[in-house]
Amino acid sequence: MGVMLATWQAYRPASWTRMATHANAFALFGLAILALAFWLFRERTGLLGNSIGWPVLSLALALLVFAGAQPHGLLGKRALPGAAWIAAISFSLYLVHKPMYGVVQSRLGEWLEGRGIVAYAVYGAASLLAAALLYYAVEKPFLRLRGRVLSRDRVAPAA
Q1: Is 114 exposed, middle or buried (0-12, 13-18, 19+ CB in 10 A)?
Q2: 8 A C-beta contact, residue 89 and residue 135
Q3: Residues 93 and 72 in one domain
Q4: What is the dihedral of CA 135, 137, 143, 146, to 10 degrees?
Q5: Are 20 and 86 members of one domain?
Q6: Does this model's pTM top 0.90?
Q7: Which of 28, 63, 78 is the last residue of a domain?
Q8: pLDDT digits (tens, 9 = 90+) for 47-73
Q9: Residue 16: which domain range?
Q10: Do 99 and 80 meet the contact criterion of CB atoms below 8 Å apart?
C-alpha cells in the first residue's frame, strides 16, 4: 500500500492534491477500517483474519498514512517526533523485521518466553537496528547513486 501511495503522489499529483482536501474523511475512514481489521483478527490464527484481515489492515494504515501526510488535516497538523525517521527506514524495516524475529528467537527465545512487553521491545529494537543498518549502508547510498545517474541522464550534451 505504501508503494501505491507513493505512485499516486508521484504520477497523479492533481488527484493527490484534490483528495488531500479530504484528509480528515480519509482518517475517519481509516479508523473505521482499522476497527474492522481488529474485528477480523479476533481469532488470532483464524482463516478470516489471516486471509482477509491483513489486506484490510494494510488499507486502513494506508488511509491513515495518507491523512497524516496532509499538513492541514487533524493527523498531519503536528509533527510526531521520530516519525520521519521511521518513514525513511520503513522499506528496510519491511525487509528485515521477519528475519530479525527469527534471529532474536533463535538467540534469546527461551529467555524472552513469557516476558511480554520486554520480548516485544527486544524484537522491535533488533528490527529497528537492522533496518537502520540496511538503510544507511545500502538503501541511502544507492538512492544517492540513482539521483546522480538520473540527473546525468537529464542533462543533454550540447550539439
Answers
A1: exposed
A2: yes
A3: no
A4: -150
A5: no
A6: no
A7: 78
A8: 888 899 999 999 999 999 999 999 999
A9: 1-78
A10: no
